[in-house]
Amino acid sequence: MASITIFGKGSMGSAIGSNFEAAGNEVAYLTKDMPVEQLGEIVVLSVPYPAIAGILAAHRDLFAGKIVIDITNPLNFETFDSLVVPPDSSAAAEIAKEIPDASVIKAFNTTFAATLATKKVAGAHPTTVLLASDDQEAKDKLIAALEGSGLAFIDAGSLKRARELEAMGFLQITLAAADKISWTGGFGIFK
């Protein structure tokens, strides 16, 4: 059992938290204006990308030694036509620069809340979480903490792969927003 702290309790934070709880973990949610005194072993950043800078600045020391899950897709929500990170980087890489004493993992950004709740994409295919990090032990701990949740996992490689995962997430969101796929749909991965 792991101790999980989730920043944000929207649809994604709640769906991710439910999966951790289903796997037998202890989950605490932090919402805006709540005091933060300590963080769990695994910390999930389930807030819009622009909010992360403030969270990191306010609680930087608490992230040391933690496994930090970045679920964001750093979309430009004004134009809905680009990402707001440098083209040779990712939100996860930018976060890792800010908290170098933490192990950052990109995960959950290519899944919708509905697919995390039902464990199915388009009602038929298993929900697969892609993850990327430079810390293999942290990836293994995340997968172990979610064993029994009903989710499938694929290790996409090093943190460099977060850029491609964010591009996939961006495409999926823009397709759903344009009603070309449903919010219960998404990418299915078959081995």
UniProtKB/TrEMBL annotation:
Source organism phylogeny: Bacteria, Bacillati, Bacillota, Bacilli, Lactobacillales
GO molecular function: oxidoreductase activity
Superkingdom, natural source: Bacteria
Cross-referenced PANTHER family: DUDULIN-RELATED, REDUCTASE
Organism field: Trichococcus ilyis
Protein name per Swiss-Prot or TrEMBL: Pyrroline-5-carboxylate reductase catalytic N-terminal domain-containing protein
InterPro entries: NAD(P)-bd_dom_sf (IPR036291), STEAP_metalloreductase (IPR051267)
